[in-house]
Amino acid sequence: MSACRPWRWPFKTKESVMVNSIKEGDNVKVRVENVDGTQILVKMAKQ
After folding, report:
1. Would you say the pTM of this structure is higher than 0.70?
2. In which order are the strands placed within the sheet that holds 28-35?
3. Where are the domains of the chain?
4. How do residues 1-47 score in pLDDT, each as one tens digit?
């Protein structure tokens, strides 16, 4: 299986600390919620 190419994050985050702990190549599971019409990343966990 080939690695995915890097991509820009299309969501705002509730806490920037969530994104700072992720490195290239990490597998993550995320939860995104619609808050007043804006997609917000509210939970992220490494797999």
Report:
1. no
2. 12-13, 38-46, 28-35
3. 12-46
4. 556 666 666 778 877 777 788 888 888 888 989 989 988 888 888 88
- Contact status, residue 19 vs residue 13, Cβ threshold 8 Å: yes
Is residue 32 packed enough to be buried (19+ CB in 10 Å), middle (13-18) or exposed (0-12)?
middle
Backbone φ and ψ for 20, nearest 5 degrees, come out as -65, -25
Does residue 9 sit in helix, strand or coil?
A: coil
Per-residue pLDDT, 7: 63
31 CB contacts (<8 Å, ≥6 apart)?
Answer: 41, 42, 43, 44
